[in-house]
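Tokens as discussed.
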């Protein structure tokens, strides 16, 4: 696979006090992005799980998968995810991201948005397992969806973009400490979208399991 350099034609935006978002519109070639999207939809073991919201159990409004190195686990939305082995195309994306960023990503959370009714609520990637100021690399494949950010302190100072098919978003610095993001529902007729968020877990499976609610 060929990938566009993140140091070239990319959009960089600072988020106070010390966060940064880098957006590369066409990080992947469009035909290669088409192929990888089809591969992931067919080959990934997508799951639906329940989460607890407002005192009741509800089904997450999207499909999820988690992959990573051996012994990696992630406490996420009230449940413990043990990493499945790296799928071939996902591993290729990981290698490219590590080469371009200098980071060491040992796992990836994948979300499948089947249509406009699937969504992701307000959150930050600030779980203790990720450590302080984690670098999150987010690759989007498929239909464009709104990606909205807001300041944690007051919910104001919003920023929004629509990540393109084959695009890359890097969030780094103290973004997760001070900002939240979401993928809201839409009434528009939209096709499926797969989002992959690469990250590094700092703790072992045993440590993560001990903290799992």
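Sequence:
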């Amino acid at each position: 696979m060929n990938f566009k350099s993140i140091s070239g034609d990319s959009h960089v935006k600072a988020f106070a006090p010390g966060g940064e978002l880098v957006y590369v519109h066409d990080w992947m070639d469009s035909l290669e992005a088409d192929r990888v999207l089809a591969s992931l939809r067919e080959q990934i073991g997508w799951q639906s799980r329940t989460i607890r919201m407002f005192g009741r159990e509800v089904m997450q409004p999207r499909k999820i998968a988690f992959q990573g190195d051996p012994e990696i686990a992630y406490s996420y939305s009230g449940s413990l995810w043990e990493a499945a082995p790296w799928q071939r195309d996902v591993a290729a994306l990981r290698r490219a991201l590590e080469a371009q960023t200098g980071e060491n990503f040992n796992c990836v959370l994948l979300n499948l948005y089947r249509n406009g009714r699937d969504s992701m609520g307000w959150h930050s990637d600030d779980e203790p397992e990720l450590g302080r100021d984690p670098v999150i690399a987010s690759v989007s494949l498929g239909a464009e969806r709104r990606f909205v950010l807001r300041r944690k302190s007051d919910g104001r100072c919003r920023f929004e973009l629509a990540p393109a098919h084959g695009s890359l978003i890097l969030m780094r610095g103290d973004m997760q400490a001070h900002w939240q993001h979401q993928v809201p529902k839409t009434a528009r007729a939209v096709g499926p979208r797969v989002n992959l968020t690469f990250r590094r877990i700092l703790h072992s499976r045993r440590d993560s399991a001990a903290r799992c609610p």
